[in-house]
């Protein structure tokens, strides 16, 4: 995947760092646009996946909207040119200050997750003499078959409003004068690679829409969230996810009413494959069954393997030896969970070898920490 020139450039850059392939990002964005525009769908990029300035500028230049989950994400999206009318603001615990940021920027929509939140948005909007557009985040109770930490659409999750609360929500909405219901919002989880899970979501949205219709409510916007997964096992086989099948599934199965518009909040599928964490081997240490390759990147730079047992494909970029040996690739942090993979087959690896951890564009750099007083990773493009 990396040319000789790029590897030479890597050798002159202090490790660890994130490397972003902006050409791949652009190719991905072109396909997202082509496939979504076939059906006039709106795509809001989920900033939480990667809010790196260069990445955001590239995404913005393709005309996508923004899906934000904090006041600071709204501010950054605005600074980088995402128009207010394309910014959605989600999150189960929006603070007053963050709600005010949304109101001051006249964003497209607040995705509301509870009755108390609705009343607070109403109060704050009233103080500013504004009407806030809101969508109800409804818990679809659809299984996403992904890691339980990133499943969000089930009734026992903290997210969203449950079906049995809806009557009450509608009654309360009638008393609130400074919020306007414009949409329904759903999200079932992340890293979903089996598209049939989205089929379940479509059918549930149709059912819920029927319920609203019976209550004489047709909202203008339906937002089905994000969640399309990427290929972590064989990234090179599928650098760009199958957006064509993804959008066409919604076109086939989701029943929109006339004039209704469909929105998506995609994060991982847009940026996941364009980022690689580059690290160097510090030491190779003999273990009982395998060797340890101790690298200079750790859970501080990429927490996904430690937190979700996530798999990221690892390559040795500099060893020309084709003898395959087994290594536990681990970081320098004083935690046993600071491991990127066990008994991985790699060419004979020695101190100074350059290691690539693939598919780190989403939820990599954004989740980095300064644990052990380490520096935050730099990025190159
Ligand atoms: N919309 C909502 C309401 C969300 O909660 C999320 C992600 C997205 C959209 C974007 O989902 P995506 O298209 O990226 O799957 N840190 C975890 C992933 C957490 C996802 C949180 N919500 C990981 O590293 O796998």
Overview features:
381 residues, elongated, TIM Barrel, 8-stranded parallel beta barrel, Lyase, Ornithine Decarboxylase, Chain A, domain 1, alpha/beta
Which CATH-level-2 architecture of the largest domain?
Answer: Alpha-Beta Barrel
Q: What sort of overall outline do the alpha carbons produce when their principal axes are compared?
A: elongated
List the domain count as a whole number. 2
Radius of gyration using CA atoms only: 22 Å
What would you note in describing this structure?
There is one protein chain. The chain has 381 residues and is α/β, with parallel strands linked by helices. The chain has two domains: 4-17 and 273-380, Lyase, Ornithine Decarboxylase, Chain A, domain 1 (Beta Barrel); 22-272, TIM Barrel (Alpha-Beta Barrel), CATH 3.20.20.10. The protein has helices spanning 4-11, 22-37, 53-61, 71-79, 96-104, 115-127, 166-175, 196-214, 243-253, 268-271, 304-308; strands at 17-20, 42-46, 65-68, 87-89, 109-112, 132-137, 179-185, 221-223, 261-266, 275-286, 291-295, 314-316, 324-330, 339-347, 354-357, 378-380. Strand 8 (221-223), helix 9 (243-253) and strand 9 form a beta-alpha-beta unit. The model has no long low-confidence stretch (mean pLDDT 95). Bound molecules: ligand LLP. The site of ligand LLP has 22 residues, from strand 9, helix 10 and helix 11.
SSE layout and pairing:
Layout: H1 4-11, E1 17-20, H2 22-37, E2 42-46, H3 53-61, E3 65-68, H4 71-79, E4 87-89, H5 96-104, E5 109-112, H6 115-127, E6 132-137, H7 166-175, E7 179-185, H8 196-214, E8 221-223, H9 243-253, E9 261-266, H10 268-271, E10 275-286, E11 291-295, H11 304-308, E12 314-316, E13 324-330, E14 339-347, E15 354-357, E16 378-380
Parallel strand pairs: 1-16, 2-3, 2-9, 3-4, 4-5, 5-6, 6-7, 7-8, 8-9, 11-13
Antiparallel strand pairs: 1-10, 10-11, 10-15, 12-15, 13-14
Helix pairs in contact: 2-9, 4-5, 5-6, 8-9
Bound molecules: ligand LLP.
């Amino acid at each position: 995947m990396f040319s000789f020139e790029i590897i030479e450039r890597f050798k002159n850059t202090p490790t660890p760092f994130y490397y972003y392939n902006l050409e791949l990002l652009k190719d991905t964005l072109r396909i997202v646009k082509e496939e979504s525009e076939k059906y006039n769908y709106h795509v809001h990029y989920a900033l939480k996946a990667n809010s790196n300035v260069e990445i955001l500028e590239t995404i913005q230049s393709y005309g996508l909207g923004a899906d934000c989950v904090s006041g600071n994400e709204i501010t950054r999206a605005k600074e980088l040119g995402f128009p207010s009318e394309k910014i959605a603001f989600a999150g189960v615990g929006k603070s007053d200050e963050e709600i005010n940021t949304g109101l001051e920027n006249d964003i497209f929509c607040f995705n509301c997750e509870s009755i108390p939140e609705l009343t607070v948005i109403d109060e704050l909007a009233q103080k500013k003499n504004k009407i806030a557009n809101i969508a109800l985040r409804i818990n679809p109770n659809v299984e996403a078959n992904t890691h339980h930490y990133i499943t969000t659409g089930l009734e026992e999750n903290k997210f969203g409003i449950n079906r049995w609360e809806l009557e009450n929500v509608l009654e309360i909405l009638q008393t609130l004068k400074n919020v306007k219901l414009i949409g329904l919002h759903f999200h079932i989880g992340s890293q979903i690679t089996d598209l049939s899970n989205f089929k379940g979501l479509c059918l549930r949205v149709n059912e819920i829409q029927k319920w609203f219709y019976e209550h004489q409510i047709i909202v203008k916007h339906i937002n089905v969230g994000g969640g399309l997964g990427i290929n972590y096992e064989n990234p090179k086989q599928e650098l760009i996810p199958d957006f064509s099948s993804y959008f066409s599934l919604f076109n086939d199965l989701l029943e929109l009413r006339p004039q209704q518009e469909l929105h998506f909040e995609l994060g991982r599928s847009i940026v996941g494959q364009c980022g690689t964490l580059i690290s160097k081997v510090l030491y190779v240490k003999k273990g009982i069954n395998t060797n340890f390759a101790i690298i200079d990147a750790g859970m501080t730079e990429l927490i996904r393997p430690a937190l979700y047992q996530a798999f990221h494909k690892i390559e040795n970029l500099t060893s020309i030896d084709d003898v395959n040996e087994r290594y536990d690739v681990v970081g320098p942090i004083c935690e046993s969970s600071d491991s990127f993979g066990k008994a991985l087959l790699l060419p004979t690896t020695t101190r100074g070898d350059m290691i690539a951890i693939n598919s780190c564009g989403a939820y990599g750099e954004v989740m980095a920490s300064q644990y052990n007083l380490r520096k935050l990773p730099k990025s190159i493009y």
